[in-house]
Specification:
The complex is a heterodimer of chains A (454) and B (298). Chain A folds into 2 domains: 25-196 and 336-412, Response regulator (Rossmann fold, 3-Layer(aba) Sandwich), CATH 3.40.50; 198-329 and 416-445, Rossmann fold. Helix content of chain A is 38%, strand content 19%. Chain A has 17 helices and 17 strands. Chain A has helices at 4-18, 91-110, 132-142, 155-168, 184-187, 198-212, 228-242, 255-258, 262-271, 282-294, 318-324, 339-348, 357-364, 366-377, 383-388, 410-413, 441-445, and strands spanning 41-43, 54-57, 61-62, 75-83, 117-127, 148-153, 172-175, 217-222, 245-251, 275-279, 300-303, 325-329, 380-381, 393-395, 404-406, 418-423, 431-438. In chain A, the strands form 4 sheets. In chain A, strands 9-8-10-11-12-16-17 form a 7-stranded mixed beta sheet, sandwiched between helices. In chain A, strands 3, 4, 5, 6 and 7 form a 5-stranded mixed beta sheet that branches. Chain A is globular and about 65 Å long. Mean pLDDT of chain A is 87; it is low at 16-52. Chain B is an all-alpha fold. Chain B contains 11 helices and 2 strands; from the N terminus they run H-H-H-H-E-E-H-H-H-H-H-H-H. A two-stranded antiparallel sheet of chain B has the order 1-2. In chain B, helix 9 packs across helix 10. The longest helix of chain B has 31 residues, at 2-32. Chain B starts with a helix and ends in a 14-residue tail after the last helix. Classes of the chains: A alpha/beta (454), B mainly alpha (298).
């Protein structure tokens, strides 16, 4: 007998959860490794110039070498990675960010490691599906075995584990640019961010666009929350500071949720602003820019860091993007000229990454390297020892960013420089820098004493 | 008025795509009594194959579409043979759970195949627009409507007029009687999955014609077909078409007119509309507009 009613009920149940299903799934459940609790002292004797004498260690640091160790005589520092690797909205970026970090730490190992220890970022890499529940589950599983988090992707997933990180003295590197990471009252001093925030990014970018062509009306489009929302707050603050009419923030969502960007396109067309500051995913940006341009919109779009993907130039929106879109980034893309960029290109031996997530992963890793080296210099590679060095930590980015001090006063120390780029089919990742080291009057003057959103 | 016309054309375009996906659900349901929750993964895999054929093998777009439909028909039939055929005789709910597992397996496969990039379909319409009833509309919306409804019409004619279609309908009505009449019921199951896979591929291509291309996550758009099959009737192809277009237009109208007129409903309220319609349909007409009313012996 047919079971139509039962199916209707089942289909209805599935439909109801469909709205939230973009982050749902049976993730890659990692094994719970051995609890490598080492409470002893290690003496570095590898002769690589990284010696730090006796170093106290506890969780996540072993005397035994890493699996597939570069330096067989070294101990091992295990770092965890919680990233969006398969099903989440930022998986295309997440995979490349991890690759960039793997290459970064391999270079550290090739140079002898840190205080007689190689660094392992492979063993405890887990897929967080960009889902807060999954993030918490995976964190709990890898936490006993790691010294720090080499990556925690996404602001909401990272916020979900912050209380646990605080209790565990777990320092982490964020794969996001939320303004909250600049403020100790938000991140308890645990998050080692790099570069500007979305909020400052919008202001630097608008200062630059305004210098090119005066803005009279401004609109923001993006995902609500700590990405698009943070960016929109910056855009609105810029408009207010410059006496420019701000015609509103159009909240949209990934295509997987809303199906298409028709609504955003309609609102861009009806507002008719000179400039649209946009912070969505790459495919959504292309749809909005292309759709608006095809219907006669002639304004400029200024996109946040994650809005670009090299494949967009092959989409129908490619010509519109070339004509009407500028990209704001915290540092030069993969083809940049700093020592850091040269090193990452050398690591890939002439190959190109699929997207600039690789560059993000590499550059985001410098603060944790600085913290590990500082902790080792103090003779204390315990979690508490690592946490203690993060305040006023000075980070050298090998030229990719200005030398930075992690302080509790971001109004004075936060980086407020950006790189402006445009789509370019002849560039390695279809994006070429127009101007580097860009600063802006409004961004510089912005009273950055609290987070912009969240 | 111009905005209204353009909105309706957009709604019919996306609604036709919903209908295409929903017909895939209905064909499998009619043949096997199972709702195939793996359909969204078949959709994204179909889009992937189309992009592969266009950009890696240099096939013209029409040939790539046919190729991707053929590939997904094959994958659909193989999936049925390997994963679903052993479930014959088991409760349909168990088979449906197998399709949920299949969804995740095929989705992760698609995500890995697509990798870090946005894929595009290489379609000829792009962002071009055309005059229609005094306004301009996207060529792609017209194309979606014509292609989707033509494909559904072909399926309808096939089921009504061909010998194989007759056998499939007989299987849908009563498997045991069909078996007694010499119909190879197992083969009908395979054909159903193959047809559903081909339609899913076509739907994937239609979704992928968006101006910005698509990413693996866009597979979840296919879940909009669930409200469509509830509204149209789980076993009705005609219902899928009517409900698909109705929901597509309702969604498009909400997208256009809710911002600015009913802001208190919040951003992206159009996302909720298909599911609101589904809930109302379940309360008022639980077997859908054209679905078979269940008869229970009391």
């Amino acid at each position: 007998m047919r079971e139509i009613n039962r199916w209707r009920r089942t289909a209805a149940m599935v439909s109801v959860v469909a709205l939230a299903l973009t982050a749902c799934g049976n993730g890659d459940n990692g094994d719970v490794g051995d609890t490598d609790t080492v409470d002893d002292t290690d003496a570095d004797d590898d002769g690589d110039g990284e010696a730090a004498g006796e170093v106290a260690t506890d969780l996540g640091v072993t005397e035994e070498p890493c699996p597939d160790a570069t330096n067989e005589d070294n101990g091992c520092i295990y770092l965890g990675i919680l990233s969006d690797l398969t099903q989440g909205p930022f998986a295309p970026l997440g995979v490349e960010i991890v690759e960039g970090q793997r290459a970064f730490w391999q270079r550290v190992n090739d140079n002898g490691g840190i205080a007689g220890h190689d660094v392992d970022v492979d063993t405890y890499t887990r897929d967080n599906l960009y889902d807060t529940q999954e993030q918490s589950t995976q964190y709990r599983q890898i936490e006993p075995n790691i010294l720090a988090l080499a990556q925690t992707l996404g602001t909401p997933p990272t916020e979900a584990i912050l209380p646990d990180m605080d209790a565990d003295d777990m320092v982490g590197v964020p794969a996001s640019w939320w303004s909250g990471w600049h403020f100790p009252d938000t991140d308890d001093g645990l998050i080692l961010e790099s570069g500007y925030s979305y909020c400052i990014e919008a202001q630097i970018g608008l200062d630059w666009v305004n210098n090119e062509s005066e803005i009279t009306t401004l609109q923001a489009v993006g995902y609500p929350g700590d990405y698009g929302g943070d960016f929109a707050v910056g855009a609105e603050a810029w408009a207010e500071a410059n006496g420019v009419e701000f015609v509103g923030f159009v909240e949209t969502a990934p295509n997987a949720v809303v199906g298409s960007q028709d609504a955003a396109v309609g609102q861009v067309l009806s507002a008719g602003a000179d400039v649209v500051a946009i912070a969505t995913g790459p495919a959504e940006v292309a749809e909005i820019v292309g759709g608006a341009a095809a219907q006669g919109f002639e304004g400029q779009f200024m996109g946040s860091v994650p809005t670009w993907n090299p494949a967009l130039l092959d989409s129908p929106a490619g010509p519109a993007l070339e004509a009407q879109y500028v990209h704001v980034g915290p540092w030069e893309d993969f083809s940049g000229e700093s020592e850091a960029h040269e090193a990452m290109r050398e690591a890939l031996d002439g190959d190109l990454p699929t997207n600039d997530g690789y560059t993000f992963g590499w550059i985001w890793s410098y603060p944790l390297l600085a913290a590990l080296e500082a902790a080792a210099d103090n003779g204390d590679l315990t979690r508490a020892g690592l946490r203690s060095v993060t305040e006023n930590l000075v980070v050298d980015y090998e030229g990719a960013l200005p030398e930075t001090t992690m302080s509790d006063n971001p109004d004075e120390t936060a980086i407020r420089t950006a790189v402006i780029s445009r789509p370019d089919a002849d560039a390695p990742l279809n994006l070429s820098s127009v101007e580097t080291g860009v600063t802006g009057e409004t961004a510089d003057a912005y009273d950055y004493t609290q987070r912009c959103s969240g | 008025m111009e905005i209204l016309i353009a909105t309706i054309v957009r709604g019919v375009g996306i609604g036709s795509t919903y209908a295409l996906i929903a017909v895939g659900f209905v064909i499998i349901y009619r043949a096997t009594d199972v709702v195939n929750f793996a359909q969204p993964a078949l959709v994204i895999l179909g889009a992937y194959f189309n992009a592969l054929f266009v950009f890696n093998y240099g096939l013209p777009f029409p040939l790539a579409v046919v190729g991707s439909m053929a590939a997904m028909a094959l994958i659909g039939a193989l999936t049925e043979r390997v994963a679903l055929r052993p479930m014959v005789g088991q409760p349909p709910f168990s088979a449906a759970m197998v399709t949920v597992g299949l969804f995740f397996a095929l989705y992760v496969l698609a995500a890995r195949l697509i990798g870090s990039n946005v894929i595009t379909m290489g379609d000829p319409w792009g962002l071009s627009r055309v005059e229609f009833l005094g306004t301009t509309v996207g060529q792609v919306d017209i194309a979606k409507t014509i292609i989707s409804l033509t494909a559904i019409a072909v399926v309808g004619v096939f089921l009504q007029r061909s010998k194989l279609g007759l056998a499939m309908r007989a299987t849908a009505l009563d498997q045991e009687v069909a078996l007694a009449q010499g119909v190879n019921v197992g083969r009908m199951f395979g054909v159903s999955w193959a047809m559903s896979g081909a339609l899913a591929a076509l739907a994937g291509v239609m979704i992928g014609t968006a101006g910005g291309g698509m990413v693996a996550l866009d597979a979840f758009v296919a879940l909009k077909a669930l409200p469509v099959i509830i509204l149209g009737g789980l076993d009705s192809i005609k219902g899928s078409v009517v409900a698909g277009i109705f929901i597509g237009v309702a969604e498009a109208l909400t997208r256009t007119y809710q911002p600015g007129n009913a802001d208190f409903l919040g951003a992206n309220f159009d996302v909720v509309v298909p599911y609101l319609i589904m809930v109302i349909a379940l309360m008022v007409r639980p077997y859908g507009l054209y679905g078979t009313k269940e008869v229970q012996r009391v």
